[in-house]
Design a protein that fits this description.
alpha+beta, 6 helices, five-stranded antiparallel sheet, about 40% helix, single chain, 5 strands
Length: about 140
C-alpha cells in the first residue's frame, strides 16, 4: 500500500519495535507520516504513486521549504503546500477537485483554495481505516 521496499519497511519495523508503545501502531504511524502518503491524504494527488511523482519533481513544500524525498517524516504542526508553479498542473487540479468531495483524515487539515494542509497531530490507529492487521506484520518481522 505504501510502496516501500522490503529493506525500508524493515527499518520502519525496527524503529517501531525499539520505541516505547505498541509496535504495530507505531509502525502504522510511521507509514502514515511519510510525505508521499500525507500529500495523497490531503488530496493533492489521486494516488500515492502520483503523490510520489509530485514530490520527486519538487512540487511540494514543507514549512515553506521544497522537499523532494517521499519518505520524509512529517511532524505535528508541519504545513504542507503545493508550490505556486505546480498549482496550474492538470493533475493537481483534478486531484483537488476529487479530494474536495472526499473527507480528509481527522489528523490533517486541508485548504483546497490555496492547496495547503497542516498536520494537526500524529495519526493514531483509530485514524487509519485500512484493512491491515498490524499484529500479523509484527509477528512476521519479530522472527
Amino acid at each position: 500500500m505504501y510502496f516501500t521496499l522490503e529493506s525500508q519497511f524493515r527499518e520502519y519495523y525496527e524503529k517501531a519495535s525499539r520505541s516505547a508503545g505498541v509496535t504495530g501502531e507505531l509502525l502504522i504511524q510511521q507509514l502514515e507520516r511519510r510525505l508521499d502518503n500525507v500529500t495523497y491524504r490531503l488530496g493533492f494527488a489521486i494516488s500515492r504513486r502520483q503523490a510520489r511523482q509530485l514530490l520527486r519533481h519538487g512540487h511540494v513544500t514543507v514549512n515553506g521549504r521544497k522537499v523532494n524525498i517521499p519518505s520524509y517524516q512529517v511532524n505535528a504542526g508541519d504545513v504542507i503546500a503545493v508550490r505556486d508553479n505546480a498549482k496550474k498542473l492538470l493533475i493537481v487540479e483534478q486531484a483537488s477537485q476529487y479530494a474536495a468531495q472526499n473527507p480528509v483524515p481527522s489528523w490533517l487539515e486541508a485548504n483546497f483554495e490555496n492547496l495547503s494542509g497542516r498536520v494537526l497531530h500524529l495519526p493514531k490507529r483509530a485514524d487509519v481505516n485500512l484493512p491491515i492487521n498490524e499484529q500479523l506484520i509484527v509477528e512476521l518481522y519479530s522472527k
